[in-house]
Structures are given as C-alpha cells and as structure tokens.
Amino acid sequence: MFNKRREILFLYSVKDANPNGDPLNANHPRYDEETGQIMTSDVRVKRTTRDEWILEGEEVLVNGEAVTLPARYDELKKKYGESNAETVVSHCIDARVFGATFAVGKESFSWTGPVQFKWGRSLHRAKVEFVQGTAAFATKDTSEQRSFRNEYIVPFALMATSAVCNQNASRYSGATEEDLTKLSKALWYGTKNLITRSKMEHTPALLIEITYKEGHSSHIGSLDERVVLCKTDGSAFSDEEQYKLRSLKDFVIDLSSLQSKIDEQSDHIDSVSVIINSDVRVKGIQQEPELR
To answer: What is the DSSP letter of 137?
Structure first.
C-alpha cells in the first residue's frame, strides 16, 4: 500500500475533436447547457490511463477486449498459476488503482478504488459543432451515391479534472507508490497517445500532484475548481471571448487560489510536483515546474 494521501490536478486541451461522446445522445460531446462547459466522465480518464498501461506492457483487468469477466479471470489464473481471486486480480494495476467489483462462481470481493477522479469540465465556455461529410461507401449495392456521415466536434476546450489518492483504501487493493507514479505518467503520455480520429489533438497541459505527510487524512479537494483562465494582462474573459479560445497560447492559467490553499495546508504537505507543457503560461504558483 501507499501510506501518504495525494491529490492530482490534470489539465489537457482538446482541439477539433470529441472529448467524450454520449452514446445515448448520438455521440454528442457531454455538455452542461447551463454553464456552457464541456464535460468528460471519470471513466474516460481511466480509459486513457489503461490504454497507456497496455502500451507499456502493464497487466490490466479491463483490457478493452470483448470478453466476459469469467473468461478474463480464467486467462489471468492460467497466466499467473494462482487460484485465489484476490491474488489473481491483484496482478492488475487498474484494479489496484481504480478498484474492482468481482463475482465469479463462489468467489466475490469488492475493492473501493484508492484513486477517485471527478468528472472533468472545461475551464471556459466552449462550442459544440455539428459537421457532415461523405462516407466511404454507399449504404446499398444499388445506390449510385455514397451516404453521408455526421459527427460532433469541439473546436477547442481546456479540460480539467482532479483526483484524490486515498491511502486507506490502498490497504485492501494493494496499490503502491510505484502504481501512483505510473498513473501520473500514464495520464500525461496516455493523453498524447490518444491518436484516433475522434481524439486527435488531445494535449496534456498541466499536472500538479500534492503529497501529504504520513498520518494526514485530509486534503484540499476539488483542485480543478481553484483554476482560472485569464488574459495575458490578467483581466477576465467575457462569455463571448471564452467561446473564441483556440490554443494553449490564448490565455494564462491562474493558480493563485490553489497556491493559497497549498500555503494554508503547508504544515501537512510533504511535497508539490508541477509539470507544465512548454506552450502553457502559468501564474500564481510558487513551485518550480518541470517543463515537458
């Protein structure tokens, strides 16, 4: 297990792509009509990290294959030569980090995930555009013309999500400090590796990790809500100007509110790590960042 609570703030940009389509709404990007914010589920973030772990050769329980849990369990039992369900599943980094609910035959258990992500939201108002194009093939052999394809894209959005890494839950799943390090790496590089037609131009922008001292069981919470976008002169964007943002270079990320909370909790904080995309401008943070 890991023995220190940790919080994660992760920002990434999306350009001319669909951050997280809703399959029950024609794959329309998830969207808050009241605030004008694009939304992404925690499941989308977990899929990004899982896909990267698979690329890196890590064992995952949910590997993207269309397979039943009993069949996947049998694969893992044969691979590791073990029969106890919890021991078998503990070989999977996604189960250790995100938790698992397992029930096969007479064996069952449930691990609450030590790492819990919030739903992500864009840090500004953003548009959703409906675009059409010509499909590659006709719908019928007798058709003289090809059919049309429809899709939704977001011209630009800076997405933010945050997570809490709960050391108490790691006692049961066995998640380690090394697992958390691999999670951070997968968040950053997994986002860069979202190279599909609907996910092209996903770019990691900022990753902050706050590690608390051993024995401290509280945290700041909702780190994403303490981030503000502003113009280069420090002034606020109007609603209309927010819709026109198209690049990481169009704004400054103000972390002053977050820094204030870090200062308040400084007696309980062991370390703060900051990774920033070299195209991003940030103000209000005192920690020396690592540029990528």
So the answer is: S
Identify the DSSP state of 207: E
**Which residues on neighbouring strands pair with residue 130, listed in sequence order?**
152
Residue 237 structure tokens = 């964007």
DSSP classification of residue 237: P
- Output the tens digit of pLDDT for each of the chain's 292 residues: 999 999 999 999 999 999 999 999 999 999 999 999 999 999 999 999 999 999 999 999 999 898 999 999 999 999 999 989 999 999 999 999 999 999 999 999 999 999 999 999 999 999 999 998 776 666 666 666 666 778 999 999 999 999 999 999 999 999 999 999 999 999 999 999 998 887 888 999 999 999 999 999 999 999 999 999 999 999 999 999 999 999 999 999 999 999 999 999 999 999 999 999 999 999 999 999 999 9
3-state secondary structure of 173: helix
pTM of the model: 0.93
Q: Token pair of 238, please?
A: 């109007």
What is the Cα–Cα distance from 142 to 1, expressed in whole angstroms? 62
For residue 223, give every residue at least 6 positions away whose Cβ sits within 8 Å of its Cβ, in sequence order, or none: 7, 8, 9, 162, 208, 210, 258
- Taking the C-alpha atoms of residue 6 and residue 166, their distance in angstroms, rounded to an integer, is 7
C-alpha separations of 209 from 66, 150, 162, 185 in Å: 34, 39, 10, 12
* Rounded Cα distance, 101 and 44, in Å: 19
Q: Can you tell me the distance from the alpha carbon of 38 to that of 42, in angstroms, rounded to the nearest whole number?
A: 13
- List the structure tokens of 185: 């790496």
Contact criterion met (CB below 8 Å) for 149 and 15 = no
Distances from the Cα of 39 to the Cα of 74, 98, 108, 290, angstroms = 36, 20, 34, 28
Query: 3-class DSSP state for residue 91?
Result: coil
How do the domains of the chain map onto residue ranges? Answer: 6-56+112-127+154-291
Find the helix packing angle between 177-192 and 42-55, rounded to 10°.
100
